[in-house]
UniProtKB/TrEMBL annotation:
Residues 3-149 form the Uracil-DNA glycosylase-like domain. It comes from Filibacter tadaridae. Keywords: 4Fe-4S, DNA damage, DNA repair, Hydrolase, Iron, Iron-sulfur, Metal-binding. This is Uracil DNA glycosylase superfamily protein. Signal peptide: none annotated.
Length: 160
């Protein structure tokens, strides 16, 4: 089980679909390419790594075959418990899978929801493209940066 990475007391919780399949020799999944992209863009947006706690819809590394909807439904209970315990100030969902699961809407898409705040489960929530999408399509980097600046501005000014 992988509960999360980063500062467990951070005010900003980032929700991804699942932990990375790659990690360093010490077992730190935050060092995989997806997490490196996230860290770089977060730094460019003015967010410090200590401002962030990364958690997941699925609490384990991906396996080849599983009942995705059933497992996500079960894992949402674990995420709900994390939210109750951590009480983040802001939440940022990255990627369509995380957005659809957290918003409980299979039609939700990052491209139509980004740039606004939503009250989801009682938490101020924004969305952005997944860092893996940015790695695959570098033209999305500016949009991820824009979205992280949107979150940073809210966090720094509490005007959102």
């Amino acid at each position: 089980m992988v509960w999360g990475e980063g500062n467990p007391d951070a005010p900003i919780m980032i929700i991804l679909d699942n932990p990375g399949a790659r990690e360093n020799r010490e077992g730190d999944a935050f060092l995989c390419g997806t997490r490196q992209t996230l860290q770089e863009v977060a730094n460019d947006a003015g967010l410090d790594i200590d401002d962030l706690y990364v958690t997941y819809i699925l609490k384990r590394k991906p396996v080849r075959a599983y009942e995705k909807e059933k497992v996500r439904h079960i894992c949402m209970k674990h995420l709900d418990q994390q939210l109750k315990e951590k009480k983040p100030t802001l939440i940022l969902c990255l990627g369509n899978v995380a957005v659809q699961s957290f918003f409980q809407n299979p039609e939700a898409e990052v491209k139509t929801l980004r740039g606004s705040w939503y009250d989801i489960r009682g938490f101020k929530t924004a969305v952005a493209y997944h860092p893996l999408a940015v790695r695959r399509r570098p033209n999305l980097r500016s949009l991820l940066l824009e979205d992280l600046k949107f979150v940073a501005e809210c966090y720094n000014t509490l005007d959102c």
